[in-house]
Design a protein that fits this description.
2 domains; three-stranded mixed beta sheet; single chain; alpha+beta
Amino acid sequence: MRPRQPERVSAVLSDVAGPRVALLPPDVPAAWAAAVGPTIANVAQPRRLDADGTLGVVCESAVWVAELTYLAADITARLEGRCSRPVTALKFTVGTLTRRPAPPPAPRPASVDGRCQVLAEQLTASIADREVRAAATRAIASSLARRPR
């Protein structure tokens, strides 16, 4: 007897439950976030992509369902070509979002000492524009203060 070859989970589920089983291809969440931006991606998450191309999206409130329903044609156009399977329609529902762990806090600004400030001012002295020179000085001084000594 020959060992069975591995099968895709989606193929097995389709055999068992029929073609109506909707799975979310792994590339869809990233495509969704790129298409809608971080604000909407934080309040609405794709959950399923039906065989007919309808992307099911869970929103944190009815207000977002209404707003995204209004923007559905634009979002569908932005998703075009970004997903491994075509998205032809969007269906929004209210539900509980899957929260990802919060990103680590940004590093605290380094304390800039006088030596870093003087060196930064020397490096930016030739910049003619006063505002650009000041911004560059701050950036360089901060960078110098963070480096290991």
